[in-house]
């Protein structure tokens, strides 16, 4: 199979869809891999590294798409790429269709096979290709939140860990999944007081068992959220519903109940965000302020640490890339039901129900 690895062109996205190690595994099985010039540069991988393991370096993104049957990326295609995607393509990347109607319509029009990392699902309900980036984003949420709590950046001026004689900052984490647990772990490590909320009591029991005593659990409800936002300094939104839009847990009117300089970080922004006032931002311009509350809503948080993120992502995507290349997408998905869950759009039709529901479309009408 001919596999293309384009350079990511989303704002400040420095990750790459495949490392030289991945190219080596594909070329040794007689697949052809086209890598766009400087595609790996932001992650610390150079063109010569790819050439040394058999990749063919192409100058332009147009060439990569034109010569390839399968495209392996990190982030969803942006408008500039829509016309490059053709019916013969299999595109394997993060899509997050439920948060973007224009992207969904463009991929339907392309009639390509779209396999989304974020909906590849194991038998136990876990999301193996989303987990590593959720781990990175959860940890980064605290790192960024702590920074934006500083007064020069319009935060409350709170040091999360406090100092002797001064209480630590308070962190509220919404969601006890991968993002929430990693965020709580980082905040606890800094010495902050952490409250983590979820509606899944099994998850809350797990958190209660593994976290230190200054991480407390609480059942998530609007009443409890409204109560906690009044005195917490940093609020992390980490709620995920597989393939669907995130629920709006913090509404605009709630901002007035927060103290000026409170920081909210929406890690669910890729799925539409779990704050009503969320709008996607970039690493170039990461924050905005509404009602004196600092919003950090960067849609590709792991892109800021591309070396770590690329390795973490490709560790888990490569086995699926190999399976798709070796067997073709139809046979690979028949054999591997985990991979089959990643099918979102095929031949101009939505095949993942939650995407249709996000736009109130009928999947039967596709």
UniProtKB/TrEMBL annotation:
Q: Name one GO cellular component term.
A: plasma membrane
Record: residues binding NAD(+) = 134, 198, 220, 239-240, 267-270, 298-301
Domain (Alanine dehydrogenase/pyridine nucleotide transhydrogenase N-terminal): residue spans on this chain: 4-137
List the keywords (alphabetical).
Answer: NAD, Nucleotide-binding, Oxidoreductase
Please list the residues that bind substrate.
15, 75
Q: What does the record give as the reaction this protein catalyses?
A: L-alanine + NAD(+) + H2O = pyruvate + NH4(+) + NADH + H(+)
| Listed GO biological process terms | L-alanine catabolic process
Which SUPFAM superfamilies does this one have?
Formate/glycerate dehydrogenase catalytic domain-like (SSF52283), NAD(P)-binding Rossmann-fold domains (SSF51735)
Superkingdom is Bacteria
What residues make up the catalytic site? 96, 270
Per the database record, which ranges form the Alanine dehydrogenase/pyridine nucleotide transhydrogenase NAD(H)-binding domain? 149-297
Any single GO molecular-function term of the entry would be: nucleotide binding
EC assignment: the record states 1.4.1.1
- Listed InterPro entries: Ala_DH (IPR008141), Ala_DH/PNT_CS2 (IPR008143), AlaDH/PNT_N (IPR007886), AlaDH/PNT_NAD(H)-bd (IPR007698), NAD(P)-bd_dom_sf (IPR036291)
Q: Can you tell me which family this protein belongs to? A: Belongs to the AlaDH/PNT family.
NCBIfam families reported for this sequence: alaDH
Q: What is this protein called?
A: Alanine dehydrogenase
Q: What is the lineage of its organism?
A: Bacteria, Pseudomonadati, Bacteroidota, Flavobacteriia, Flavobacteriales
């Amino acid at each position: 199979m001919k596999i293309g690895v384009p350079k990511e062109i989303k704002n400040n996205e420095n990750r790459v869809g495949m490392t030289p190690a991945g190219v080596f595994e594909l070329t040794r099985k007689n697949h052809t891999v086209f890598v766009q010039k400087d595609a790996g540069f932001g992650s610390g991988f150079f063109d010569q590294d790819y050439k040394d393991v058999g990749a063919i370096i192409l100058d332009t993104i147009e060439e990569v798409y034109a010569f390839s049957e399968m495209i392996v990326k990190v982030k969803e295609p942006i408008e500039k790429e829509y016309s490059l995607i053709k019916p013969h393509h299999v595109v394997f990347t993060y899509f997050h269709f439920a948060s973007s109607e224009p992207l969904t319509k463009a991929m339907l029009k392309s009639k390509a096979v779209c396999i989304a990392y974020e909906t590849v699902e194991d038998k136990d309900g876990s999301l193996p290709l989303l987990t590593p980036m959720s781990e990175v984003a959860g940890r980064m949420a605290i790192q960024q939140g702590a920074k934006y709590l500083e007064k020069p950046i319009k935060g409350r001026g709170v040091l999360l860990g406090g100092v002797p004689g001064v209480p630590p900052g308070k962190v509220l984490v919404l969601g006890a999944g991968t993002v929430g647990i990693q965020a709580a772990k980082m905040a606890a490590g800094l010495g902050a007081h952490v409250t983590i909320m979820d509606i899944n009591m099994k998850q809350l029991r797990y958190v209660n068992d593994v976290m230190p005593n200054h991480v407390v659990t609480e059942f998530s409800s609007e009443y409890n959220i409204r109560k906690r936002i009044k005195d917490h300094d940093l609020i992390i939104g980490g709620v995920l519903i597989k393939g669907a839009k995130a629920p709006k847990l913090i509404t605009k009117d709630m901002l007035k109940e927060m103290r000026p300089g409170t920081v909210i970080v929406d890690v669910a922004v890729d799925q539409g965000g779990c704050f009503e006032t969320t709008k996607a931002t970039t690493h170039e311009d990461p924050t905005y302020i509404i009602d004196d509350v600092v919003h950090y809503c960067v849609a590709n948080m792991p892109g800021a640490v591309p070396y770590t993120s690329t390795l973490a992502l490709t560790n888990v995507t490569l086995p699926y890339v190999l399976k798709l290349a070796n067997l073709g997408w139809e046979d690979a998905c028949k054999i591997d039901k985990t991979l089959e869950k990643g099918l979102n759009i095929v031949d101009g039709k939505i095949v993942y129900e939650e995407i249709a529901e996000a736009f109130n479309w009928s999947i039967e009408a596709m």
